[in-house]
Amino acid sequence: MHVPLWSWFAFVALILVLIAVDLAVHSRKDEVTMKAAALWSVVWAVLGLGFTFVIGAAYGHQRAGEYVAGYLIERALAIDNLFVFALLMNFFAVPRRAQHKVLMYGVILALVFRAIFIGLGAALISAFEWTLFAFGLFLVYTAVKLLRHDDTQVDPGRNLFLRLVRRWLPMTDDYVGDKVTVVRDRKWMFTPLLAVLVVVGTTDVVFAVDSIPAIFAITTETFVVFTSNAFAVLGLLATYFLLAGMMDRFTYLNYGLAAVLAFVGAKMLLVDPPFTSWSLHLPIGLSLAVIAVCIGGAVVASLLRPPPDTAGHVTG
Predict the structure, then answer these.
(1) Distance between CA 118 and CA 208 in Å, rounded?
(2) What is the DSSP letter of 273?
(3) Is the pLDDT of residue 81 over 90?
(4) Percent of the chain with pLDDT strictly greater than 70
(5) Coil, strand or helix at 256
(6) How far apart are the C-alpha atoms of 73 and 217, rounded to whole Å?
(7) Do 94 and 193 touch, CB atoms closer than 8 A?
(8) Can you give the three-state secondary structure of the chain, one letter per residue?
(9) Is residue 294's pLDDT more than 90?
(10) Counting C-beta atoms within 10 Å of the first and last residue's C-beta, which end of the chain has fewer, N or C?
(11) Pick the residue with more confidence: 216 or 277?
């Protein structure tokens, strides 16, 4: 699959325009309403899934199927990451007005980190035949780890970069709207929003390490990998504000994600296992169906059977 250089530039330009539009629209509002979040969630979903037709027209149905499968995996993993973002917002008591800016910078950092890891992953796969097998083992391990932890364990207070920022930079005790810097007593000072951005940025590195191997199990075409990642991450912002009040309802999402990671990990292990002369290649349609059933089943199960401690709240 040959992707001309201008296609990469065109796609990056499209992403920058979409980010600029999102920032321009939401910068005029005190906070993101549920109605606006629902509208933008639909817009990002239409753009993300609509890009399937661009891939299909340019590179064929096989690549289009790989794009959709990759988009679904990364979208599901991105939604799971929202639990961590919600925890960080609560931990730092970020004002709702400032949350959009924090998350948008988080999205930009996520795109940068994913571009870096995609490039490194593609280089490793090209240089070493056993890289895919190693990625497969990592995904299976991640699936097991996900099953053993019902809740995401994050302690922002132990973040090394956060401690360094607080120690070496002058910082106010309170937030000032959505500003990162302010002038007090004729001195430039940072607000706690900088600390939040630092933690979100370093957390995004962990997200990228976990998610990039998953999509390489679907395709090794870097353009398909990056575009599906980009649209999945860009939809994070609106989805956060849409689901912020009902995060605890997706009780079984971890099980669905674990099943997906275990499946794609096993698929990667069997594609070209070392020291053997055989391999197994599953049709992209079958992979797409398994991914959709795992994620969709987890979401439906979460909505139909909430945990006992929230059942009264949900149905009341």
Answers:
(1) 9
(2) -
(3) no
(4) 83
(5) helix
(6) 11
(7) yes
(8) CCCCHHHHHHHHHHHHHHHHHHHHHHHCCCCCCHHHHHHHHHHHHHHHHHHHHHHHHHHCHHHHHHHHHHHHHHHHHHHHHHHHHHHHHHHCCCCHHHHHHHHHHHHHHHHHHHHHHHHHHHHHHHHCCCHHHHHHHHHHHHHHHHHHCCCCCCCHHHCHHHHHHHHHCCECCCCCCCCCEEEECCEEEECHHHHHHHHHHHHHHHHHHHHHHHHHCCCCCHHHHHHHHHHHHHCHHHHHHHHHHHHHHCCCHHHHHHHHHHHHHHHHHHHCCCCCCCCCCCCHHHHHHHHHHHHHHHHHHHHHCCCHHHHHHHHC
(9) no
(10) C
(11) 216
Q: Of how many residues is the chain composed?
A: 316
Take residue 238 and report the two structure tokens written for it: 């609106």
Give me the residue label for tokens 């794009």: 67
Token pair of 170, please? Answer: 């002058």
